[in-house]
Each structure stands twice: as structure tokens, then as C-alpha cells.
Amino acid sequence: MYDERKKVVWFALISRVAILILQFIFNLICPDHHADAFRGPVDDSDKVTFCDNIIAFLFNGLTRWDGQYFIHIAKYGYTYENVLAFYPLYPKLIQLVAIFIRKVFFLLNIHSSIIVAAVLINTVCFVKSAVILYDLSKIVLKKKSVAYKAAILYCINPASIFFSAIYSESLFAYLTYYSMLESIKLNPYVCFPIGLSIFTRSNGMVNIGFPIYFSFKKLCDGLLTKSENFSLKTLSRFIFKVTTLQSLCLLCNTIIISIVPFLLLQIYNYILFCIPHSNQTFIPEHIINYGTINNLILPGSDKIEWCSAKIPIAYTSIQKKYWNVGLFKYYEIKQTPNFILAFPILYIMIKCIKEYFLEYREYCFTLGLIENIKNKKFIEAKKYPPEMFVFIIHGLFLTIFCILFVHIQVSTRLISSASPLIYWYCALIMSYEPCGDNDTAYENDKNVSSRWKVFFLTQKKYSFEDKLVIFYFLGYTILGSFMFPNFLPWT
Fold first, then answer.
1. What pLDDT is attached to residue 46?
2. pTM for this one?
3. Predicted local distance difference test score (pLDDT) of residue 232
4. Given this model, what pLDDT does residue 224 score?
């Protein structure tokens, strides 16, 4: 017998093994597409052993597209301007783990050690993120069965291949969900996972909104509670002022500590690329030659435009220069297939957000800070719990940002790793109900005793919504495992 958390752990692990097997099979039977994408330079002096060939044979499908950048950064650091678009925590973790792996498995070269390190990090972070999503869902949704369904759906999410490939999705999801959970608990140290999420991906900056929101909600709750005690009016006002001051100071500390990694990164980028000195002395000769041949800008070059900006932030400038990222920049007829690929997740997000606002109009007008819903039966009759408000706002921001600015096909992996809404919505609309009391049961009796059997694999009747959700999640999982390893457009 497995409790729900152990069940989530096992299925998360099984799903990662399944993805690794799928990408291996598809990469083996299909020839690679010759995509116009960055491919890291190869050091001819590296010795390639039989063990290295085995690692390449098994996991090369995970190194496509942006994976090339992360591998390059882990091996050589930030040697070209375009690699500054990728934040350092993930490749630095890979580098550190790879050093340990190479000491233990000394037959592996640096490249192979990095690949193995990335696979291990992604697997651990994914399993941890699935469990944390379950814990978060249980607190917000208040139903064990729905929280369990959401965590299981996360394990087969439409962007599954990116959570196993050499991408930062698994690490970012782990840090983001953990930040959300600790923000709800008002953990004063939540600034550290938020800071690390910012150090992993640029959109981690949005996570600062969670401790801000829950801190203000606590202040509003305290104000309403103390104002009712008229017999001790003076004392309650004094206590409220003191607690408010403490809370505001703690909130300021949280914000400052959270953004320190981002500020340090900008300073590092500026010193490395903009201050004229012998920046290229640490760069191997074959890296310099590769950059010269492919017109890549090296540190200290006089062609770096963002260095002369009033606020020299590399990320936005590089995204615009190398990937043409900007307002409506991706709206071209030739990108229609990518818009079709992104449509399902954007539709789900918009539908979830719209339904929530329609259910809780008055609650939304108060920004969820003032509890004006006291009828328990009224809440139970609703599809969504009111506590989802801040996650709805977060999801709304991500959805609008994806529609207006990013390469639209990136929406699937960006939202899948940053917002729990897609899993909550799909878990709520699925018709499956476990045997017994819905507040305590999470699976049927047969599935509880199995590590891999889960509700969507064994239920006898499927509603139309069930079929759509399963088709979308599993369909994109399998299709992505075919497209990505063969350098086909699935980024």
C-alpha cells in the first residue's frame, strides 16, 4: 500500500524513465534534422572512450536546442554574448555535479560527465517538484483526491521532454512551487528559493509577488481582527502598529535578498563583457576560433550595444538581438504552426482565469485581501476555491506575457514549469472519483497497491473532458519525445 505522496514519487520517477526510453528510441530510429541552431564547439583534444560513446548513444537526444547552451556554459562559462540569455544556476549545478561524477567514473570525459550530471539533477528536481506541487495543491484546493490528480498530471505534462532534457525546467519548477508553498506558510526564509529561481530563469522575478501578497493578506486579516476588539482599542492599535512594522521590515528584507542574485548577475555580466581588460585570457583557443568563424561576440568586444545603455541589462537586449523577442515580433504567417502548438495551453489558462473571475467577482475586486465570503456552502458549490486568487493573477500575467512577447511555442514549457493552474484546472474537470470518501481517498483500492497504476490508466469510463486532457497531455509528451531529440522544431 502506498500513501498519496509515495505514489506521486514513484509515478514521477517512472514517468522520467519513460521519457528517457522514448527519446532514446526516437533518436535511434530517426535521422537528425539539420536545424539552424547553436551547436557548442568540440574540443578535439578530448579523449572519447567506450563509456563516452555509450553515454552519447543513450542520452544525445537530450542535448538539442537550448541544451547546447547549457552544456557550453557548464564546460567553458560565458564565452559568447548570446549565451548570457541563459542564467547560471542550472549550468553551475551541472558543472559541480559533473566534477564529482568524473572523479568517481574516471573513464568519462567532461562532456559525458556533464550529460550524466544534467540527467541526475533533472530527475531529482522533477520528483521533488511533483511532491511539492501535491503539497501545494492540497493546501489550496483542500481536497486530497484533486491534489493527487494534479500531481499525477504534472508527471505527464505537455512539456515533459523539457523536464528531462538539458533544460532548466525541472529545477525552476522545483524552486517555484517551493517558493509558492513557503509563501503561503509565511516562511521568513522564502527569499532564498525565490532568489535561486531568479538565478535560474528570468521569469523567476515574478515569484517575488507571492510573499508580498501573502504578507499583505496577513496584515489585512490582523487589522480586521484587532478592530473588532473595542474594549482594548488602544492596546490593539499599538500591537497592530508594532506587528505591521515588523512585517513590513521582514517583507523588505525578503524582496531585497530575493533580487540580490539578479543584481549580482548583472554586475558580473558587465564586468566580464563591458570593462576593457584581457577578458579572453581564460577562454580556450578553440573557443575563440569557433567564435571568430561563426561571428559570435566574445567578451571585451566593441560591438556590445547593451554595455552603453543607461541600465546595462544584457538579457532583454540579447533576446531582441539574437531571437527577435519583442511585442508582437512573432506574429508572422509562417509561425502559424507554432501558434497552433501553443493554443491548447493558452486556451486552458484563459478558460481557468475567466471562470474564476466569474465565480468570485466581488472577491477579486478586493484583491482577495479582505475575506468577504463567509458562507461555507456557497464556497463548496463553486468549482474553484477562493484561495486560488494570487495564482490566477500570476497565471494571467504569464499568459499575457506569452501571447504578446515570447516565441509562442515556448508558452507550453514556460507555463508548465511556472504555474500550477493548468494542472489544477485539468484535475478539477476530470470526472474520475476514487472509491470512498472524496476528502480522504485518492485512488481506487487496486491502484493504491501499485507503484505505476494511476487513475487515468485504469478508469472504466471517460468523459469527453477526460479524453481531451489525456490526449493533450500524453499526445504532447510522446510527440515532444519524438520532435526534440531529432532537432525538429519543438522548443
1. 84
2. 0.93
3. 46
4. 61
Higher-pLDDT residue of 293, 228: 293
Residue 220: all three cell numbers together: 489585512
Distance CA 423, CA 58 (A): 31
C-alpha pair distances (Å), 362 with each of 242, 366, 372, 387: 31, 7, 8, 14
Contact 304, 297 (CB under 8 A): yes
3-state secondary structure the chain: CCCHHHHHHHHHHHHHHHHHHHHHHHHHHCCCCCCCCCCCCCCCCCCCCHHHHHHHHHHHHHCCCCHHHHHHHHHHCCCCHHHHHCCCHHHHHHHHHHHHHHHHCCCCCHHHHHHHHHHHHHHHHHHHHHHHHHHHHHHHHCCHHHHHHHHHHHHCCCCHHHHHCCCCHHHHHHHHHHHHHHHHCCCCCCHHHHHHHHCCCHHHHHHHHHHHHHHHHHHHHHHHHHHCCHHHHHHHHHHHHHHHHHHHHHHHHHHHHHHHHHHHHHHHHHHHHCCCCCHHHHCCHHHHHHHHHCCCCCCCCCCCHHHHCCCCCHHHHHHHHHHCCCCCCCCCHHHHHHHHHHHHHHHHHHHHHHHHHHHCHHHHHCCCCCCCCCCHHHHHCCCCCHHHHHHHHHHHHHHHHHHHCCCHHHHHHHHHCCCCHHHHHHHHHCCCCCCCCCCCCCCCHHHHCCCCCCHHHHCCCCCHHHHHHHHHHHHHHHHHHHHHHHCCCCC
- Cell representation of residue 207: 515569484
How do residues 174-230 score in pLDDT, each as one tens digit? 999 999 999 999 998 999 999 999 999 999 999 999 999 998 888 777 666 554 444
C-alpha cell at 86: 541563459
First to last CA, the chain: 39
Distances (CA, A) of 465 to 85, 123, 427, 461, 475: 38, 30, 10, 11, 15
Q: Which of 471, 486, 423 is nearest to 180 (CA)?
A: 423
Q: How confident is the model at residue 237 (pLDDT cuts 50, 70, 90)?
A: low
- Would you give the distance in Å from CA 325 to the centre of its chain? 20
- Cβ proximity of 164 and 16 under 8 Å: yes
